[in-house]
Amino acid sequence: MIQLEAIHKSFGDTHVLRGITLSIDRGEVVCIIGPSGSGKSTLLRCINYLEQPEGGRITIDGQNAYRELVNGKIKNYPARRIAATREKIGMVFQQFNLFPHLTALQNIMEAPRQVKHMRKSEAEQKARSLLAQVGLAEKADHYPEELSGGQQQRVAIARALAMDPEAMLFDEATSALDPELVGEVLEIMRELALQGMTMAVVTHEMGFARQVADRVLFMDYGVIVEEGTPQEIFGAPREERTRDFLRLVQAGA
Amino acid sequence: MERPTLDMTLARESLPALLEGLKITVELTFIVLAISLVLGIFVALGRLSKSRVLSTVTGFYVDFMRATPLLLQLIYIYFVLPTIGIRPDPFVAGVVGLSLNYTAYLSEVYRSGIQAIPRGQLDAAAALGMRPSLTMRRIVLPQAIRIVIPPLGNYFVALFKDTSLVSALTLQELLFSGQIIISRTYDYFTIYTMVLFLYFLVSYPSLIFVRHLEKLTKAGYRRRLSPESLLLPIEPT
């Protein structure tokens, strides 16, 4: 469903992504692991074009997603078209990024109302059912700052799901949470995976990757060092760097 | 030397004229405020615009207004424009001059408010398929407004006082109304004390009000407590 080809991205002098090629099939759960600064989050942000890579091609269902080459020059599609593509890809952030001036319910209703022009009653019904799905039906009228981190992240997941995305991106969705709140968010992600959602998950939760992923990518220094099934990556990593990383992670756990 | 005393008879006689002046001062303040509050947003958006031309032009306008004295700007509009055939009356000149100046300053307040909204808010909106203009209107501005209310309040008080500069254009606002009485009676002490007192009478409650707003806007976004919920024990958060 999602294809990345030879993606390059730099921030100033730092070459963060050095030719990433990756494809994610419909219904597949891909976990991306690797040390901090390896480019995992940047890669994820390229998928919905929050970062614009200098080089490479992003296609969704075989179509150029955000831009095309015109006479050898990269030309962005108009904002309207880019926004329309992003609608199909939900994203959940490390810092939740809920809209603080809106209640949980309003956060979830905002994009369906404003982007899809859904009727208010319909949007509200949908939002309430999503809130129930993430176990927060009674928090509908709470503002984000009245919620715990885990609750905020669950609202953020509901907000993304309200657009009926075809795929979901999770950018270290549990990294900013207190340890006792991580489980409730992972549980919802696990349920989504079981329902067949296409997911790209950047995570430090090796247990989640091991249990839920169809495929695990190990990234380091802006390249995909190794990829395989969870059994392959966690059971018998081929690359030295993968082994070193897993050893360090497991020592810390 | 004689100790100055308040001439109570003169004070009583002058009060209506001074109140008339105060009325013009207040009118001027509110008209200029309304204009600058609206135009300031557009100038701020212009400065933040991706269009190089728009941001350069609005940036130069703001810098120009900030780099020259307000009194001179007013004088220029009132005394220099007539030489090219435009003759605004003092009130109009005052409104135009003050509005041009305050639009520039308020646009800077708005700009800093807009830029204070974290990048993550823009990312979240974009990821939901919201376009930049929609994000600005629905996500950024509503949050920025709250940030800018206290500084805007302070500019409101500053504007109220700055309207006294329009006395240089012979507009009979509060200060100039006093000066007219003084030119007749030469009682600087009584009249200027009254003028001072009248400015303070309006400014001071406004300052207190702005301080109150500051507290309110810092309180964050929370549910309004219903009267019943006040009877319940406080929920630990």
SSE order and pairing:
The complex is a heterodimer of chains A (253) and B (237).
Chain A (H helix, E strand, L loop, with lengths): L1 E10 L2 E11 L4 E5 L6 H8 L7 E6 L2 E2 L2 E4 L2 E4 L2 H9 L1 E4 L11 H11 L5 H14 L15 H13 L5 E5 L7 H16 L3 E5 L3 H7 L2 E6 L2 E6 L1 H6 L4 H13 L1
Parallel strand pairs in A: 3-10, 3-11, 8-9, 9-10
Antiparallel strand pairs in A: 1-2, 1-4, 4-5, 6-7, 11-12
Helix pairs in contact in A: 3-4, 3-5, 4-5, 5-6
Chain B lengths: L7 H41 L3 H16 L2 H11 L9 H26 L3 H9 L4 H31 L11 H12 L2 H31 L19
Give a structural overview.
In chain A, 38% of the residues lie in helices and 27% in strands. Chain A has 253 residues and is an alpha/beta fold. In chain A, the strands form three sheets. Chain A has a six-stranded mixed beta sheet with strand order 8-9-10-3-11-12, sandwiched between helices. Chain A has a four-stranded antiparallel beta sheet with strand order 2-1-4-5, with helices on one face. In chain A, helix 4 packs across helix 5. The longest helix of chain A has 16 residues, at 179-194. Chain A is globular. Chain B has eight helices and no strands. Chain B is mostly helical and 237 residues long. Chains A and B meet through helix 2, strand 8, helix 3 and helix 5 of A and helix 5 and helix 6 of B.
Provide a quick synopsis of the model.
The complex is a heterodimer of chains A (253) and B (237). Helices cover 38% and strands 27% of the residues of chain A.
Attribute tags:
heterodimer; A: 253 residues; alpha/beta; six-stranded mixed β-sheet; four-stranded antiparallel β-sheet; 9 helices; 12 strands; B: 237 residues; mainly alpha; 8 helices; flat
Helix-strand pattern of chain B, N to C?
A: HHHHHHHH
> Gyration radius of chain A, to the nearest Å?
18 Å
Q: Could you estimate the helical fraction of the residues of chain A in percent?
A: 25-40%
What is the beta-strand fraction of chain B? under 5%
Strand fraction band of chain A? 25-35%
User: Could you list the spans of chain A in which at least 5 consecutive residues all have pLDDT below 50?
Assistant: none
Query: How far is it from the N-terminal to the C-terminal residue of chain A, by CA?
Result: 34 Å
Counted by DSSP, the helix tally of chain A is 9
- Helical coverage of chain B, percent range: over 70%
Beta strands of chain B, count: 0
Give a short account of the largest sheet of chain B.
none
- Structural class assignment of chain A: alpha/beta
Question: What class, by secondary structure content of chain B?
Answer: mainly alpha
Radius of gyration of chain B: 23 Å
**Biggest interface, chains and residue tallies:** A-B, 35 and 24 residues
Overall pLDDT level of chain A = 94
Tell me the series of helices and strands of chain A, N- to C-terminal: EEEHEEEEHEHHHEHEHEEHH
Mean of all residue-level pLDDT scores of chain B: 91
